[in-house]
Amino acid sequence: MKIKNQSLLIICILIPLAVGSLSALFSGNMSYSGINQPSLSPPPIVFPIVWTVLYILMGISSYLICTSDSVDKGSAMLVYAVQLFFNFFWNIIFFRFSNYLLAFIWLLILIALIILMIYRFYKIKPLAAYLQIPYLLWCIFAAYLNLMVYYLN
């Protein structure tokens, strides 16, 4: 990967990190330990580590699309922005409002948007799409956790 614009790369990485940080801030006390959890729940320390890595990958991926010469990059970045919007509000729905069913439905929509984003990114720059696959897999795992929390609480 050749870096054409270092400042743009940093901005592209900071955007999803800021979205995640603000979402966590607006979610209030994100105490996952205070609810009944499914048996496959990872320890709480795993979540911020995984999300930081995923947000960095998202930023690099968006940078690859932003710097492409494709005429489709605008529509691909729109899907990226919409999925970031859904990503932002999931934490708030789940943690602040403890509305586990709505959070699960919201997460299913987010997963559909991620799949669409991966498809659009792949058509422009396959590497950008591949960088989003861990995010998709983590959100699918999060959907399992979310659904189980709904059933257990």
Explained architecture:
There is one protein chain. The chain has six helices and no strands. It has 153 residues and is an all-alpha fold. Helix 1 packs parallel to helix 3, helix 3 runs antiparallel to helix 4 and helix 4 packs antiparallel against helix 6. The protein is elongated.
Cα end-to-end separation: 46 Å
Strand content: under 5%
Task: Give the helix level as a range of percent.
Answer: over 70%
Structural class: mainly alpha
| Biggest sheet architecture | none
Question: What would the principal axes of the Cα set say about the shape?
Answer: elongated
Radius of gyration: 16 Å
Tally of alpha and pi helices = 6
Concise synopsis of the structure shown:
76% of the residues lie in helices and 0% in strands.
Q: Which descriptors would you attach to this protein?
A:
76% helix, 6 helices, mainly alpha
